[in-house]
Amino acid sequence: MNGTAFVLAVAALAAATAASGCGFGPGDASPGRAELRVTREFGTIPMVTATLDDPTESDTVVRMLDSSADLETSFGGNFVDSIDGYAGSTAGGGDEDWFFFVNGYYSDIGSGETPVRPGDRIWWDYRYWSAAYRVPAVVGSWPEPFLHGYEGDRPSTVVQCLTDRAPCDAVMASLEDEGVDPTLERPAAPEPSPDELRILVGPWDAVRDDPAARGIEAGPGESGVYASFERCAGVTTLTVDDDHGRAVERLTDAGMVAAVRRDPDQPTWVVTGTDATAAAGAAAALDGAVLRDRYAVAFSGGQPVPLPSPEDAPADGPEPCR
User: Fold this and answer.
1) What is the pLDDT of the chain when averaged over all its residues?
2) Alpha-carbon distances, residue 301 vs 81, 203, 310 (angstroms)
3) Disulfide check for 144: which of 82, 103, 268, 276 has CB 3.0–4.6 Å away?
4) How many CB atoms lie within 10 A of CB 269?
5) Residue 229 and residue 9: Cα distance in Å, rounded?
């Protein structure tokens, strides 16, 4: 289960067969290692870490999870109700549930139908969903999706540079260090490319011209990003939200790394900031130690701030924008 709609009975039956490992045998193995991570509260509380060497044709996301955690499922094993005692809202009521990502992509199919492939980074997270039920893409599986993409299909990667060359070179270097071969473009404005993985690098005033990136201004329910940019007193600021989508604080001189997606396009990563200097700071932070298990990350005073913020919003919110 990842919070998607109920599956048809026929699909559930097929998933149950795959999850049990009966009837078809393990199938051929593919060399390589897949990684599983299970967390709570938007990645802030780790629960389970496991690996699977040389996954076979019958290995699915739910089977890998079942081998590493205490699991309760329904609908033929395709719908996860509980992991290690933490039940989703469909099982116990409330506004927290289990969701999973494969290589940074939100999965639109059930975990019993999703195969495990070599190199996959599978991330389950138990979180509040009231502000954003569906988060289309996340940054917390870096260097995915740039190495393996989704369903074994690795798209090409394009860095669209909308600022000085140095921050873009830093992003290119980070990708190359991970084994990615990106292309650098310097368009006058962002150029959508639905079949390519894009990283937009530049201040928000330049990046927001992109249709995918501009969805961030509509809030987490639209973009899945728990922060938004706005103009206050003539300067660009970044408002950080808590896990219920409520404003916690408004930052100046702040950067951000986030991922957005407009279906059926490939995800677009946004490396940006309130100005060019802040964007350059974010460009220097494409690192697994900073991004791991994060939906998105802001940067203030040189320090990373998880998005959503782990702090609760004050009762009166941040100072009004004037």
Assistant:
1) 90
2) 40, 17, 17
3) 103
4) 28
5) 44
